[in-house]
C-alpha cells in the first residue's frame, strides 16, 4: 500500500498517470508510442478527452496552492471525462469533483486535504471490479494481494470502539498528516497538526495500519487499548526516494550509476568539524582518514588513489555550486543529504574535475507544512587521548644515555657526568636528579568540544525557508590547538508564479583554527618523545619561562609545551558561499534555469613567534607573519531541462552552458618586533611584503539524456566539454563522455512470480573524466623568480632566476571507469543489498618529475606521464524491521580496492619518498610501475648479530672475508636479510614491505528504537594495511641521544641477548634504523566510532507539559572512538598524511611521523523542537 | 509571448555568461616568462645576482659546502651525538649514493651552472652596455668554471653543460675527468681578461680576475701541473694582494673585503638564516649558519680533530685564533665571558696530551657575541680564497719546479705575519733540507694556516694522487673508492644517460 504525500508536480505522477492512461493501447501494441498517437487512439476509443483523477487533482493543487493526501489506490483508475471547472473555494470544487467518484475530502489544515473513499458503495466496487478485469486481461500484471481489499465486503458493526493516539517520528516529533487505516477496511483517518488521530474500530481484533511517506508502515492490534501512540521509523530505502545527481534529481529506482547517499541523520551523528569526517565509514569505496589537530582536513579517497602527485580529493558540490572550498566552514547539521557519485557515468557531467569522484552536499530546506519549526540542538563533550607511550623516566634515561654514548665512544653528556645534583635553576632546591617530567602529561589534556545550533524552518506550497545559526568549538587534545566556527545559513525558495521559481542558498561562516605548531621540521609528538625527563618544563629565570635541554645534555629537542604555548600558527577563514537561481517553465516539461553563484573567502594565516630563550636556543626577535588569500569564484550556469513521459517512455534531457572563474589574491607580510607584547606589524623591522594574483577560468558545455522505458530499461548518456585556461594553447579543451544502462528485473513478468524479490536492478556504466589536479593557473610556463637577494658589500640586491622546465603539453589527468552494479531488495525491501565492481584506469597522470639533477632545475615539472589502475568492489547490506515497540535497522558496508601503477615516466623510473633526518634520512616509500603506489620499501631484518664470529661468518659467505657483509656491523647490531644472496647487504636487498592501502575498509551501523529510547552503534574499520611507525623509530631507533621509549632498556648487550632491540649506540653506524620491517606494523583497526543512546520525551507529554510550546525533546549521550581494536603500537592507527595540505608530499601516506592522534570523546546532547 | 520572453532572456544570459573562448587565454600577472627575460644588461645583472644568491644558499656556501669539504678532510671530528647521520656517514666513510649532504652540494653546483648558462646564452642578443655585458658573462663563466672545478674534484667526470637544458631529454652523459678539467682550464683562461681586478662600492664581492686566476691555479695544482699553476699564482701576486697584519682579521665581520681577500661569500647579520636550499624566498640579507653549527656554545656538530690541533707548533699564536679552549674568554670585548666546561657540549679532544674540550673559533660569532643558541646574527663573510693560500701554493710550485730558497721564503712570509711571528723555516721540527722536507713544511704550514678553511680536503686528494703521503691521513680510506664521491642516486634514477654502470667504482 503506498501513500503519497503529494505536494508538487513530479515526474513520477506524470509517469503514473500516463501509464494508466495508456494501458489499453499498450496492450494492443507494445511498441514505441508517442503522445500524438496515443491521443488519437484514445479519442477514437472514447470519443472524448479523458483525464485521470490524479491529473485533475494536480491541477486543483496548483490552482489553489493546496496539498492533497491520499492513498494511491483511492485515486487510481478513476477517470474524468470533462474538463475540471474551478469554481469558488477549493472545497466546492472538490465536492463537485469527488462526489461522483464515491470519494470525500477531509480538511486537515488550511492547505492540506486528505482524500478518502466514502463508505464502500456499489459504484466504487463496480469500478474496482472493472479495473481488475482489465488487469487480468493484460496478464502482464498480477494484482497485489492488498489491492483486493475493496472487494472485501465489510459488514459494518454497530459497536464501535474509539481509539485515539499520537503518531510521532523517530525523534519523537509529532507527525501531522499520517494515515491511520483499519486493516482490511476502508475506514481511515489522517493525523491532525499535532499528530493526533481518532478512529473508530469495530472490535478488539482490529489492526491499525499507520503509514506516512518516508517511513515504514506500522501495524498495531487494537486490543483493549483506547489510546495507542505510535512511533514511526524512517524507511531507510524508499523506492521513490529521490537522489540528488549532478544538475538534477533522479528516483533511486532509476539511477544507473554508482551513487551512494548519506542521510542527514548519519551526517550529523558525529561531533566533527567537516562533512568529510562525518561520512567516514558510511560509504563503501570512500576512504576517509583523519589527519591531525582540529581543523586539519582529512584525506578523502573515492575508489582509490586517483593521482600520484596531484590532488586526489573529490570535487565537492554544495547546493549546486561546484568546487566549493573550505568544507570546514560548512556546518554538518545543516546538511540534508550527501550524495557520493562514484562511477564515471554519474560524475561525467562534472567532466574535467570529477576524476576523483564527486560529493554533492544538499543543505536543508523547509517543509511545506505551513508551520514554523524552531529547533535547538546542543552538545558538550570532552575528548582525551586514548593511548600513551611508555617513555623513559629519569633514572632509566640516565642509564640509557650513558650506554648510548659510551658504546659509540663519545662523551657522556656533561650534565649526566657532573651536573645532576645541581638545582634545575637558580633559586630552587630541586635538582635535575629529582626532576622527572612527564612530557606526555604536560602536553595532553582533556579538551572540551561543544556545538550549538538553532534552526528555523517553515514552508508552504508557495515557498520554503530554512535558516540556522551555529557555533562550534573544539580544543585539541594537545595544548595549543583548537577550532572555532560561527555559521549562518539561509535557504529560501519561492514559486513566484506559475512559471517562475526563485531559490537561493546562502552560507556565511567564520572559522578560526589554531594549528599544531611544528618546530624544526619535527611534529609536536616527536618533541614529546625526544624530550629529556630530568629537564623541567618551566624555568622562571629564562626569558619566556620555558626550559629545554642545552649543550650539556647532549640532546636538542625543543620544549613542546613552549612551542604549543608560545608559538602561534593560526588560520582564520571567512567563507561566503551562495547561489541563487531563477527557473522558468517555458512549455510543459521544458524548464530553463539560470544559476549564479559565488564562493568568496578571505583566509588569513598568521604566525606569531615570540622572543624567548629556553637555555639553549631562542629567538631574539618577535617574528610575525600575516598572510591573506582572498579567493573569488563566480559561477554562472544556464540549464535547460526537458522532462517528458510519452507512454512507456520517460525522458529527461538537460543541456547546460556554464563558466566558473577563480581568482586568488595572495598578500603576504612579515616583520619583526623587538618586544613580545606587540603582536601586530605596525612599526616592525625587516618588513617584507609579497603578493600574487592567480586567475583561471573553466568554460563548460554539457548535455545529458536519461531515458526510461516502462520503468525497467534505463539508459543515461552524457557528455561534457570543458575548456580550462591553465593549460597550454591547443591543450585547453577536453571532452568527457559517460554512458550507463540499467535493467530493473523486478518489473519483468517473470520476476513477479517471485514475490520475495521487491527490487532487482542490474547496472553497468562507462565514462571518461578529468582532473585538473594541482595544476596552477599558469603552470605550463616557466617563469622568472625574483625572490632572492645577494648582499654585495653587505647591501641587499635582488636577483632573478628560473628553476623549472616548462611543459607546453600540460593537460588533464584522465580517468576511464567501468562500473557494474546490482541492487537487490527482498521482502518489501526489508533486506537490501547492493554490490558494485569497478575498474578505474587513470592515464596522463601528472607527476612532479624532477629533471636530472645535472640539468640544474630545482623545481619538478608537471608532466602527464604516468598511468595507474584501481579496481575493486563495494557491498552494502541492510536489514530493517519493526515489531511492536521495537524498530531497528542494521547496515553493513565493505569496500575493497586494489591499486597498481601501470606506468611512470620511464620504464624503470622510481619515485622515492618519506625520508626524514630524524629517522636516519632513509627513503621510506617507493613507487614503481607494476606495483601499488608508494609501497614501503626497505630491508628485511634477520635477527641480531650475537657475536663477532657471526659477523665474520657472514663476511665470508661470498668466500672473500674482506668484502664486508654489512659494513660497520658489530655484535648487537641488526642483521639484515641478504635477499639476493650475493653476500653483501646493499640497496639490491631492499624489498617491498607492505602498503598503506588496506585490503578492505568497512562500516557497520546498528540503530534501534524502543518506545522513547533510541540506540545507535557505529563501527568503522580498515583491515590489512601497514603503517611505517615513525614513533617507534623515535622511541627505540637510538639514532642519537634523545628521550626514548622504555623499549631501549631492553637493548642488546652481551648479557641481554634474547631481545629484538639492537645495541644502544649513538650515531647508528650499522644503520639499524634504516627502513626495514622492524618499523612496519599492521595498521588494521576496528573502531567503535560512535555509540549513542537517546531518550525522547513522548510527544504528547512534552506538549502537554509545556502548553504546546515544546514539540520535541530528546536527550542523548554518546561516545566516539570509545573502543579501538588494533595491534598498532603507536598512538593511533588512523595515520593519514602529515603534509596533507601541501603539494608534493603525496607519497608519504601511512607514515607515522608523530601525527596528532584521534581523540576519544564522550558527550551529552539535547535537542528541542518548538 | 511569455515563452518568447523567457527564451530570449535565457538566450541573452547564456550569451553573456558563456562569452568566447578568449577568456581562456590568461597570462601570469606575477612574473615574466623565462623566455622573455635575459634581454637587457639590467636583466642580466639581476640574473648574475641570482647566481651569487644561490651560492649563498644552504646547499652550497650557507651550509652543505663547508660541511662536505670538512667532513671529507681530517681537520674535523664528531662533536658528539649532535652530528646528524648523513654527516657522520661522510666523516667515517660509510656514505653511499643517497647521502643527502653530498647530494645537496652536487645539486647546488649544477643549479649554479644552469643559472650561469641561462645568462651566457641570453647575453648574446641582450641589449645594453657591451663592457658591462662582457663582465657579466665573464662572471657567469667564472662561477660556472668554479662549480665544475669543485664537481670534478669531488665526483670525477660529470656532464658538461655549456647551454641550459630546455627539456628533460637534454640530460647528458658523464664527461671524463680530463674533459672536465680541460673545460675548467680553457674557460678560466679565456674569461679572466674580461674580469676586473677589483670592484668598489655596491659591486664589492663580485668575482675578480684574481679569483679566476686562483681557481685556475688550484685546478692546475690539483693535477700537479705546477708550471701552469705558478704562472697563475704569480699573476695574482702582481695584482696587489697582501697579508693582513692580524691573522684573525680574515675571519671577522668588521674586516671583510680586506687586502688578503680574493673571493668572499657575503653574509650579513641583519636577517635570519635562510634555510632554503637555493637561498630563495627572501629579499632580506641572510646570515650564516656556520657559527651555530661549529661554535663552542652552539650545536658543536664538528670539532677540530686531534690530528689538526696537535699539528700546530705549541707556541703558534694561530692556535688561539682557530680554537676555543675551556677557560678562554668570548663575547663582547666590553663584557667578556669565561667559557666554562658546562657551556660546551659533546666530545673531548686530546690536546698536547691533555683531554679537554676544544672547539672551532674560526668563523664563530663568539669573538664578539655570546650566541647562546642564536643562529641568526652571524654576518661574517665566508672567505673562500685568500692570499695566504696563494703564497703557500707558490711555495709548493717553487719546491716542485723552482728553487728551494724561494719556496722557503714564501713559507716564511706566512710565518712573519705580524700577529703570527713564528720562527722562520728551517726549524728543528721542519729542517727543510730537501724537497721532501720542504714539502713536509709546506704541508704543515698549509694545514695550520688554512685550518678549517675547506682547503684540506682537496689538498689530501691532490697530494694522495701525487704520492706525497707517507701515511694515509683518512683512517677509512680504501683505494678505488674514496678518491671520489658516488654520483648521487637521484642522477642515476632520472638521467637515462647515466646508469649504475657509470657509477664511480666502489659504490
Summed up, what is this model?
Chain A contains 19 helices and 58 strands.
List keywords for this structure.
heterodimer, A: 1170 residues, mainly beta, five-stranded mixed β-sheet, 19 helices, globular, disordered N terminus, B: 507 residues, mainly alpha, two-stranded antiparallel ribbon, 6% strand
Question: How would you characterize the overall build of this protein?
Answer:
The complex is a heterodimer of chains A (1170) and B (507). With 1170 residues, chain A is mostly beta strands. Chain A has 19 helices and 58 strands. By secondary structure, chain B is mainly alpha-helical. Chain B is built from 17 helices and 10 strands. In chain B, helix 8 (209-222) packs antiparallel against helix 9. The chains are: A mainly beta (1170), B mainly alpha (507). Chains A and B meet through helix 12, strand 28, strand 31, strand 32 and strand 33 of A and helix 1, helix 2, helix 4, helix 5 and helix 17 of B.
Strand content of chain A: 35-45%
Give the radius of gyration of chain B. Answer: 26 Å
Report the order of strands and helices of chain B.
Answer: HHHEHHHHHHEHEHHEEEEEEEHHHHH
As a percent range, the share of helical residues of chain A equals 10-25%
The biggest sheet of chain B amounts to: 2 strands, antiparallel
Number of helices of chain B: 17
Low-confidence stretches of chain B: none
Strand order of the largest sheet of chain B: 1-3
- How far apart the termini of chain B lie comes to 85 Å
Model regions low in confidence, pLDDT < 50 over at least 5 residues of chain A: 1-47, 120-157
Task: Give the percentage of residues in beta strands of chain B.
Answer: 5-15%
Q: Taking all residues together, what is the mean pLDDT of chain B?
A: 92
Oligomer: heterodimer
Number-wise, the strands of chain A total 58
- Describe the biggest sheet of chain A? 22 strands, antiparallel, barrel
Helix content of chain B: 40-55%
Shape summary of chain A: globular
Structural class of chain B: mainly alpha
Amino acid at each position: 500500500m503506498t501513500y503519497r504525500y503529494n505536494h508538487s508536480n513530479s515526474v513520477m505522477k506524470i509517469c503514473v498517470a500516463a501509464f494508466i492512461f495508456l494501458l489499453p493501447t499498450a496492450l494492443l501494441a507494445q511498441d514505441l508510442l508517442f503522445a500524438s498517437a496515443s491521443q488519437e487512439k484514445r479519442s477514437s476509443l472514447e470519443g472524448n478527452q479523458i483525464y485521470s483523477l490524479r491529473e485533475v487533482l494536480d491541477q486543483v493543487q496548483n490552482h489553489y496552492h493546496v496539498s492533497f493526501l491520499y492513498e494511491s489506490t483511492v485515486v487510481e483508475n478513476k477517470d474524468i471525462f470533462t474538463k475540471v471547472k474551478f469554481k469558488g473555494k477549493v472545497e466546492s470544487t472538490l465536492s463537485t469533483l469527488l462526489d461522483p467518484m464515491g470519494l470525500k475530502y477531509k480538511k486537515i489544515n488550511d492547505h492540506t486535504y486528505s482524500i478518502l473513499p466514502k463508505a464502500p458503495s456499489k459504484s466504487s466496487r463496480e469500478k474496482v471490479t472493472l479495473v481488475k478485469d482489465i488487469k487480468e486481461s493484460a496478464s502482464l500484471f498480477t494484482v497485489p494481494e492488498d489491492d483486493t481489499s475493496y472487494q472485501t465486503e465489510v459488514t459494518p458493526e454497530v459497536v464501535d470502539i474509539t481509539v485515539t493516539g499520537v503518531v510521532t517520528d523517530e525523534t519523537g516529533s509529532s507527525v501531522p498528516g499520517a494515515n491511520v487505516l483499519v486493516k482490511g477496511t476502508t475506514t481511515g483517518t489522517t493525523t491532525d497538526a499535532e499528530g493526533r488521530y481518532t478512529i473508530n474500530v469495530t472490535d478488539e481484533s482490529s489492526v491499525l495500519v499507520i503509514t506516512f511517506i518516508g517511513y515504514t508502515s506500522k501495524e498495531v492490534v487494537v486490543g483493549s487499548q483506547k489510546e495507542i501512540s505510535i512511533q514511526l521509523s524512517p524507511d531507510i530505502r524508499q523506492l521513490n526516494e529521490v537522489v540528488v545527481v549532478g544538475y538534477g534529481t533522479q528516483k533511486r529506482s532509476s539511477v544507473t550509476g554508482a551513487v551512494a547517499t548519506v542521510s542527514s541523520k548519519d551526517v550529523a551523528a558525529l561531533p566533527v568539524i567537516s562533512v568529510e569526517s562525518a561520512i567516514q565509514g558510511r560509504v563503501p569505496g570512500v576512504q576517509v582518514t583523519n589527519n591531525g589537530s582540529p581543523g586539519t582536513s582529512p584525506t578523502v579517497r573515492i575508489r582509490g588513489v586517483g593521482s600520484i602527485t596531484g590532488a586526489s580529493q573529490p570535487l565537492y558540490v554544495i547546493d549546486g555550486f561546484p568546487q566549493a572550498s573550505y568544507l570546514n566552514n560548512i556546518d554538518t547539521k545543516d546538511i540534508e543529504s550527501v550524495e557520493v557519485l562514484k562511477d564515471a557515468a554519474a560524475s561525467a557531467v562534472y567532466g574535467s574535475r570529477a576524476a576523483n569522484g564527486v560529493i554533492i552536499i544538499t543543505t536543508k530546506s523547509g517543509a511545506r507544512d505551513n508551520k514554523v519549526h524552531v529547533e535547538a540542538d546542543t552538545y558538550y563533550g570532552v575528548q582525551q587521548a586514548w593511548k600513551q607511550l611508555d617513555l623513559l623516566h629519569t633514572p632509566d634515561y640516565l642509564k640509557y644515555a650513558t650506554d648510548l654514548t659510551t658504546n659509540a665512544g663519545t662523551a657522556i653528556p656533561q650534565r649526566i657526568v657532573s651536573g645532576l645534583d645541581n638545582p634545575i635553576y637558580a633559586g630552587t632546591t630541586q635538582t635535575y636528579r629529582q626532576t622527572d617530567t612527564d612530557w606526555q602529561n604536560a602536553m595532553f589534556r582533556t579538551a572540551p568540544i561543544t556545538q550549538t545550533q538553532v534552526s528555523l524552518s517553515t514552508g508552504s506550497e508557495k515557498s520554503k525557508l530554512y535558516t540556522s545559526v551555529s557555533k562550534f568549538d573544539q580544543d585539541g587534545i594537545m595544548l595549543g590547538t583548537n577550532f572555532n566556527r560561527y555559521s549562518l545559513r539561509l535557504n529560501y525558495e519561492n514559486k513566484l508564479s506559475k512559471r517562475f521559481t526563485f531559490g537561493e542558498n546562502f552560507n556565511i561562516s567564520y572559522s578560526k583554527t589554531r594549528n599544531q605548531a611544528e618546530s624544526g621540521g619535527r611534529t609536536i609528538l616527536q618533541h614529546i618523545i625526544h624530550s629529556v625527563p630530568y629537564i623541567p618544563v618551566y624555568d622562571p629565570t629564562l626569558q619566556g619561562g620555558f626550559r629545554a635541554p642545552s649543550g650539556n645534555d647532549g640532546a636538542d629537542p625543543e620544549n613542546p609545551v613552549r612551542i604549543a604555548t608560545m608559538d602561534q600558527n593560526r588560520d582564520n577563514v571567512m567563507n561566503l558561499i551562495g547561489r541563487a537561481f531563477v527557473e522558468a517553465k517555458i512549455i510543459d516539461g521544458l524548464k530553463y534555469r539560470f544559476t549564479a553563484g559565488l564562493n568568496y573567502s578571505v583566509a588569513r594565516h598568521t604566525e606569531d613567534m615570540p622572543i624567548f630563550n629556553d637555555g639553549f636556543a631562542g629567538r631574539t626577535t618577535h617574528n610575525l607573519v600575516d598572510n591573506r588569500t582572498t579567493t573569488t569564484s563566480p559561477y554562472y550556469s544556464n540549464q535547460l531541462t526537458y522532462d517528458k513521459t510519452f507512454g512507456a517512455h520517460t525522458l529527461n534531457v538537460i543541456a547546460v552552458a556554464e563558466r566558473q572563474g577563480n581568482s586568488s589574491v595572495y598578500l603576504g607580510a612579515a616583520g619583526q618586533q623587538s618586544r613580545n607584547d606587540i603582536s601586530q606589524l605596525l612599526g616592525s623591522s625587516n618588513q617584507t611584503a609579497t603578493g600574487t594574483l592567480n586567475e583561471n577560468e573553466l568554460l563548460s558545455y554539457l548535455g545529458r539524456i536519461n531515458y526510461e522505458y516502462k520503468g525497467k530499461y534505463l539508459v543515461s548518456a552524457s557528455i561534457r566539454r570543458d575548456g580550462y585556461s591553465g593549460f597550454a594553447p591547443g591543450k585547453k579543451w577536453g571532452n568527457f563522455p559517460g554512458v550507463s544502462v540499467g535493467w530493473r528485473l523486478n518489473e519483468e513478468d517473470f520476476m513477479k512470480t517471485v514475490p520475495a524479490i521487491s527490487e532487482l536492478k542490474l547496472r553497468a556504466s562507462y565514462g571518461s573524466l578529468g582532473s585538473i589536479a594541482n595544476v596552477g593557473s599558469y603552470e605550463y610556463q616557466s617563469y622568472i623568480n625574483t625572490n632572492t637577494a645577494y648582499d654585495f658589500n653587505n647591501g641587499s640586491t635582488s636577483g632573478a632566476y628560473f628553476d623549472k622546465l616548462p611543459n607546453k603539453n600540460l593537460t588533464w589527468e584522465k580517468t576511464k571507469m567501468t562500473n557494474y552494479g546490482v541492487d537487490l531488495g527482498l521482502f518489501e525491501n526489508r533486506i537490501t543489498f547492493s554490490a558494485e565492481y569497478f575498474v578505474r584506469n587513470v592515464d596522463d597522470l601528472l607527476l612532479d618529475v624532477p629533471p636530472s639533477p645535472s640539468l640544474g632545475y630545482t623545481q619538478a615539472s608537471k608532466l602527464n606521464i604516468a598511468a595507474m589502475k584501481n579496481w575493486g568492489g563495494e557491498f552494502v547490506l541492510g536489514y530493517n524491521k519493526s515489531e511492536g515497540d521495537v524498530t531497528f535497522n542494521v547496515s553493513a558496508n565493505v569496500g575493497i580496492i586494489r591499486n597498481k601503477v601501470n606506468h611512470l615516466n620511464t620504464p624503470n623510473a622510481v619515485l622515492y619518498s618519506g625520508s626524514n633526518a630524524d629517522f636516519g634520512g632513509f627513503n621510506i616509500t617507493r613507487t614503481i610501475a607494476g606495483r601499488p603506489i608508494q609501497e614501503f620499501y626497505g630491508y628485511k631484518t634477520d635477527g641480531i648479530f650475537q657475536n663477532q664470529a657471526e659477523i665474520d661468518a657472514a663476511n665470508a659467505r661470498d668466500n672473500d672475508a674482506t668484502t664486508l657483509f654489512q659494513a660497520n656491523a658489530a655484535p648487537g647490531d641488526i642483521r639484515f636479510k641478504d635477499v639476493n644472496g650475493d653476500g653483501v647487504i646493499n640497496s639490491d636487498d631492499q624489498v617491498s614491505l607492505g602498503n598503506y592501502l588496506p585490503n578492505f575498509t568497512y562500516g557497520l551501523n546498528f540503530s534501534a528504537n524502543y518506545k522513547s529510547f533510541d540506540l545507535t552503534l557505529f563501527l568503522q574499520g580498515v583491515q590489512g594495511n601497514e603503517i611505517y611507525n615513525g614513533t617507534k623509530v623515535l622511541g627505540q631507533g637510538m639514532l642519537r641521544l634523545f628521550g626514548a621509549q622504555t623499549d631501549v632498556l631492553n637493548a642488546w648487550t652481551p648479557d641481554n641477548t634474547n631481545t629484538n632491540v639492537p645495541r644502544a649506540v649513538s650515531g647508528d653506524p650499522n644503520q639499524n634504523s634504516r627502513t626495514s620491517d622492524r618499523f612496519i606494523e599492521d595498521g588494521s583497526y576496528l573502531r567503535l566510532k560512535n555509540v549513542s543512546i537517546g531518550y525522547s520525551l513522548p510527544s504528547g507529554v512534552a506538549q502537554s507539559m509545556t502548553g504546546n510550546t515544546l514539540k520535541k525533546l530528546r536527550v542523548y549521550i554518546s561516545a566516539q572512538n570509545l573502543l579501538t581494536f588494533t595491534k598498532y603500537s603507536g598512538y593511533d592507527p588512523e595515520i593519514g598524511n602529515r603534509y596533507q595540505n601541501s603539494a608534493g608530499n603525496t607519497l608519504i601516506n601511512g607514515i607515522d611521523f608523530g601525527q596528532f592522534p584521534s581523540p576519544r570523546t564522550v558527550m551529552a546532547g539535547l535537542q528541542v523542537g518548538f | 509571448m511569455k515563452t518568447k520572453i523567457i527564451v530570449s532572456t535565457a538566450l541573452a544570459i547564456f550569451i553573456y555568461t558563456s562569452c568566447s573562448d578568449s577568456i581562456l587565454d590568461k597570462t601570469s600577472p606575477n612574473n615574466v616568462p623565462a623566455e622573455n627575460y635575459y634581454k637587457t644588461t639590467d636583466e642580466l645583472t639581476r640574473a648574475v645576482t641570482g647566481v651569487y644568491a644561490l651560492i649563498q644558499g644552504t646547499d652550497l656556501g650557507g651550509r652543505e659546502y663547508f660541511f662536505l669539504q670538512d667532513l671529507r678532510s681530517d681537520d674535523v671530528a664528531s662533536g658528539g651525538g649532535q652530528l646528524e647521520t648523513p654527516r657522520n656517514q661522510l666523516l667515517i666513510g660509510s656514505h653511499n649514493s643517497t647521502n643527502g649532504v653530498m647530494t645537496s652540494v652536487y645539486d647546488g653546483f649544477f643549479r649554479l651552472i644552469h643559472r650561469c648558462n641561462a645568462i651566457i646564452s641570453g647575453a648574446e642578443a641582450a641589449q645594453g652596455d657591451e663592457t658591462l655585458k662582457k663582465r657579466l658573462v665573464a662572471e657567469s663563466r667564472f662561477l660556472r668554471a668554479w662549480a665544475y672545478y669543485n664537481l670534478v674534484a669531488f665526483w670525477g667526470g660529470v656532464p658538461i653543460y655549456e647551454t641550459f637544458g630546455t627539456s628533460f631529454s637534454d640530460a647528458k652523459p658523464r664527461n671524463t675527468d680530463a674533459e672536465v678539467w680541460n673545460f675548467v682550464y680553457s674557460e678560466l683562461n679565456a674569461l679572466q681578461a674580461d674580469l676586473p681586478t677589483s670592484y668598489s662600492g655596491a659591486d664589492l664581492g663580485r668575482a675578480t680576475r684574481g679569483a679566476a686566476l686562483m681557481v685556475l691555479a688550484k685546478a692546475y695544482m690539483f693535477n700537479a701541473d705546477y708550471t701552469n699553476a705558478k704562472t697563475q699564482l704569480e699573476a695574482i701576486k702582481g695584482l696587489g694582494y697582501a697579508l693582513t697584519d692580524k691573522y684573525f682579521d680574515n675571519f671577522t665581520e668588521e674586516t671583510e673585503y680586506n687586502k688578503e681577500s680574493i673571493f668572499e661569500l657575503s653574509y650579513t647579520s641583519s636577517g635570519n638564516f635562510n634555510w632554503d636550499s637555493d637561498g630563495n624566498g627572501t629579499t632580506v640579507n641572510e646570515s650564516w649558519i656556520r657559527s651555530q653549527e661549529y661554535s663552542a656554545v652552539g650545536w658543536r656538530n664538528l670539532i677540530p680533530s686531534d690530528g689538526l690541533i696537535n699539528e700546530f707548533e705549541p707556541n703558534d699564536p694561530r692556535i688561539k685564533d682557530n680554537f676555543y679552549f675551556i677557560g678562554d674568554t668570548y663575547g663582547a670585548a666590553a663584557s667578556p665571558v669565561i667559557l666554562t666546561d658546562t657551556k660546551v657540549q659533546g666530545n673531548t679532544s686530546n690536546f698536547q696530551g691533555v683531554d679537554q674540550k676544544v672547539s672551532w673559533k674560526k668563523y664563530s660569532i663568539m669573538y664578539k657575541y655570546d650566541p647562546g643558541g642564536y643562529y641568526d646574527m652571524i654576518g661574517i663573510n665566508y672567505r673562500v680564497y685568500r692570499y695566504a693560500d696563494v703564497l703557500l701554493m707558490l711555495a709548493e710550485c717553487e719546491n716542485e719546479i723552482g728553487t728551494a730558497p724561494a719556496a722557503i721564503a714564501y713559507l716564511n712570509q706566512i710565518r712573519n705575519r705580524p700577529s703570527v711571528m713564528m720562527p722562520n723555516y728551517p726549524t728543528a721540527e721542519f729542517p727543510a733540507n730537501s724537497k721532501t722536507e720542504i714539502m713536509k713544511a709546506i704541508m704543515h704550514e698549509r694545514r695550520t694556516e688554512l685550518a678549517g678553511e675547506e682547503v684540506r680536503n682537496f689538498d689530501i686528494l691532490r697530494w694522495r694522487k701525487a704520492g706525497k703521503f707517507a701515511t694515509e691521513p683518512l683512517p677509512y680510506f680504501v683505494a678505488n673508492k674514496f678518491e671520489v664521491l658516488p654520483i648521487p642516486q637521484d642522477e642515476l634514477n632520472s638521467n637515462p644517460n647515466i646508469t649504475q654502470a657509470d657509477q664511480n667504482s666502489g659504490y
